[in-house]
Amino acid sequence: MLDEMLCRTCNLAMISLPPLETWLRSVAAEAPWLIGIAIIAGTFIHEDLATVVTGMLVADGVVNAWVALPSLYTGIVLGDIGLYWMGRLIAKNRLSKRLSRGRRFSRLKVWLDERLVAGVFMVRFMPGLRMSAYTTYGFFAMPLRRFVISVVLAASIWTTALFLLSYKFAALTSHWLGVLRWPVLIVAVIVPLVVARHLIQGGMPEEDADEGADSDG
């Protein structure tokens, strides 16, 4: 599982990082006033990769940090809120309305509401869950204000940490890595983050195991 996750992440990074960097550099050179919008758009493509590239561009002096960080926060928060409202739209169809009358739906809604803040923070640090989790919060009509506050806090912690890590890496390696910059970046920054996320996920209880224990009881 971990090996497969690492391979997917590395492949995505190798394919996406250089073109994303090239695009942002060209925007910064040709239309500097558009760079904030370009960074926001980059977060819609992949927020972690956009954060890594932006951190490196700030270290190279291409983008100002006072433009980069607010743009990253804005794009990530807007994307998360967009997923929430996607879930709200899904909840408006007839089948969803019929499901919402069930007792199990009500129990799950209460369960999600009690763990909303912790859930938002957990999703921020785990790969592959953001879209399904945040649309689910919208589908179950979790309190929007509490969701947005949780998203803002989680994004500010995670994005700032990833941005600073990428910035420091770029500042230390800008003059001597050359063409090896991207492979080394993937190993030095992205892979440890994926491993950390996997360890966090591994510490969570297995749903199948819980269901098996219930059935045995």
What sequence of helices (H) and strands (E) makes up the elements? HHHHHHHHHHH
Tell me the number of helical segments per DSSP (H or I, 4 or more residues long): 11
Q: Classify the secondary structure makeup into a structural class.
A: mainly alpha
Helical content stands at over 70%
Number of strand segments: 0
Low-pLDDT windows of residues: 204-217
Cα separation of the termini: 30 Å
Mean residue pLDDT:
79
> What amount of the residues lies in strands?
under 5%
Radius of gyration in whole Å, from Cα? 20 Å
Largest sheet: none
Number of structural units classed as domains: 1
Estimate the global geometry from the Cα principal axes: elongated
Describe this structure in words.
With 217 residues, the protein is an all-alpha fold. It has one domain (2-203). It is 82% helix and 0% strand. The chain contains 11 helices and no strands. The chain has helices at 2-30, 35-45, 47-59, 65-90, 94-99, 103-114, 116-124, 130-139, 144-173, 181-202, 207-216.
Question: How would the blueprint of this fold be written?
Answer:
Elements: H1 2-30, H2 35-45, H3 47-59, H4 65-90, H5 94-99, H6 103-114, H7 116-124, H8 130-139, H9 144-173, H10 181-202, H11 207-216
Helix pairs in contact: 1-2, 1-3, 1-10, 2-3, 2-4, 3-4, 3-9, 4-8, 4-9, 7-8, 7-9, 9-10
Core attributes:
single chain, mainly alpha, elongated, disordered C terminus, 11 helices
